[in-house]
C-alpha cells in the first residue's frame, strides 16, 4: 500500500514574515492525518526557519533544486549535502520551470536525481509534457524519455527511493487541471514503464499529480488508482487550501 504524499512547492515566493505565518498555519492546522505524508519545499534561504518551525511535527520539508556536483567552484549552486544538513527529506528535481528557463535537459535531471539519493535525500522527479507535445500526440514519448534518462544512468532501483511527480506543463499555474482520467492515463503509463524492468519497484513507487491541484479537485484526482498524492504550487501558499488537500489525501486511503 503506497502512502500518499502531498508536497507544497512554494517556488520563488515568500518573505521571512510570510513564511513564518505559512509554516505556523500549516503546523497548527495539520491535525491527525496518519494515512498521508505532508511536506513543504520553500526557497533555500528559508530552510533553516522551516527546520526550526517544523522540527518535531509530522510535516517534512525539502528543497526545490540541487547541484549535479558534490562541492566546489560552482558559484550560485547549492549542494545536496547542504540541503541535507538543514534536515530536508525531499528535493524536487527536474521541475518544468527548471527545464524550460534554466535549460536542464533529461541528462542533467538524471544526474541531479542520482546526486540527491547519494546525499540521503528523496528526489521528487518531475516529468510532463507541454501543450504542444500533448497536441502532437507525443505525451508518452516525452515522459518515457524523461524516465529513461534516470533508468539509463541509475537503473530501476533508483525508483525504489524516488518519488515521481507527473506535471503536465499546460496545467501548471493556469487553472487548467488534467481531468482525473487524463492524469490516470499518464500515471498508469509511468508505472507500466517502470514495471517493464521491475514489477516490485513499479508497485511501490509513488506518483504524484501536479498542475492546478486545488481543494475542489484533489479528491477526484487522488481517487485514481495510480495517483498517490500531489505536488502543489499556488494552493500550497494558502494554509487552508493546502490543509484541505492534505485532508483529501488522508481520506483517499
Ligand atoms: O508546478 C506545480 C508544482 O510543482 C504546480 O503548480 P500549480 O499548483 O500552481 O499549478
UniProtKB/TrEMBL annotation:
Where does it live in the cell?
Answer: Cytoplasm
A GO cellular component annotated for this chain's UniProt record is: cytosol
Q: Taking the first listed entry, what is the main subcellular location of this protein, grouped into a coarse class?
A: cytoplasm
Q: Name one GO molecular function term.
A: triose-phosphate isomerase activity
- What CDD domains does this protein's entry cite? TIM
**Main EC class of this protein?**
isomerase
Sorted alphabetically, the keyword list is: Cytoplasm, Gluconeogenesis, Glycolysis, Isomerase
> Does this UniProt record's set of keywords contain Transferase?
no
A GO BP annotation = glycolytic process
Residues noted as binding substrate in the record, renumbered to the chain: 9-11, 173, 212, 233-234
InterPro entries in alphabetical order: Aldolase_TIM, TIM_sf, TrioseP_Isoase_bac/euk, Triosephosphate_isomerase, Triosephosphate_isomerase_AS
SUPFAM superfamilies named among the record's database cross-references: Triosephosphate isomerase (TIM)
Q: Where is the active site?
A: 95 (electrophile), 167 (proton acceptor)
Give the EC number(s) under which this enzyme is classified: 5.3.1.1
Q: Catalytic activity, per the record?
A: D-glyceraldehyde 3-phosphate = dihydroxyacetone phosphate
Q: In which pathway does it act?
A: Carbohydrate degradation; glycolysis; D-glyceraldehyde 3-phosphate from glycerone phosphate: step 1/1; Carbohydrate metabolism; erythritol degradation; Carbohydrate biosynthesis; gluconeogenesis
> What family does the entry list?
Belongs to the triosephosphate isomerase family.
Spell out the PANTHER family in the cross-references: TRIOSEPHOSPHATE ISOMERASE
Assembly with partners or alone: Homodimer.
* Cited function: Involved in the gluconeogenesis. Catalyzes stereospecifically the conversion of dihydroxyacetone phosphate (DHAP) to D-glyceraldehyde-3-phosphate (G3P).
Q: What is the name of this protein?
A: Triosephosphate isomerase
Supply the source organism for this entry. Answer: Thioflavicoccus mobilis 8321
State the encoding gene: tpiA
Amino acid at each position: 500500500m503506497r502512502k500518499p504524499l502531498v508536497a507544497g512547492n512554494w517556488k520563488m515566493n515568500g518573505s521571512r514574515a510570510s513564511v513564518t505565518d505559512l509554516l505556523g498555519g500549516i503546523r497548527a492546522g495539520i491535525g491527525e492525518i496518519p494515512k498521508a505524508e505532508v511536506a513543504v519545499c520553500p526557497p533555500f534561504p528559508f530552510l533553516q526557519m522551516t527546520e526550526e518551525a517544523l522540527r518535531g511535527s509530522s510535516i517534512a520539508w525539502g528543497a526545490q533544486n540541487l547541484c549535479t556536483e558534490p562541492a566546489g567552484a560552482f558559484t550560485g549552486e547549492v549542494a545536496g549535502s547542504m540541503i541535507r544538513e538543514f534536515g530536508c527529506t525531499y528535493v524536487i528535481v527536474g521541475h518544468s520551470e527548471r527545464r524550460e528557463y534554466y535549460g536542464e535537459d533529461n541528462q542533467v535531471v538524471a544526474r541531479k536525481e542520482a546526486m540527491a539519493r547519494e546525499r540521503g535525500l528523496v528526489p521528487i522527479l518531475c516529468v510532463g509534457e507541454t501543450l504542444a507535445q500533448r497536441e502532437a500526440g507525443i505525451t508518452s514519448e516525452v515522459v518515457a524519455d524523461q524516465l529513461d534518462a534516470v533508468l539509463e544512468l541509475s537503473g530501476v532501483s533508483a525508483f525504489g527511493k524516488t518519488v515521481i511527480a507527473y506535471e503536465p506543463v499546460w496545467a501548471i499555474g493556469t487553472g487548467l487541471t488534467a481531468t482525473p482520467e487524463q492524469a490516470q492515463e499518464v500515471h498508469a503509463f509511468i508505472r507500466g514503464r517502470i514495471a517493464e524492468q521491475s514489477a516490485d519497484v513499479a508497485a511501490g513507487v509513488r506518483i504524484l499529480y501536479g498542475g492546478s491541484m486545488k481543494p475542489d479537485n484533489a479528491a477526484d484526482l487522488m481517487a485514481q488508482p495510480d495517483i498517490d498524492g500531489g505536488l502543489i504550487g499556488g494552493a500550497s501558499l494558502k494554509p487552508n487550501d493546502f490543509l484541505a488537500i492534505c485532508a483529501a489525501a488522508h481520506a483517499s486511503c
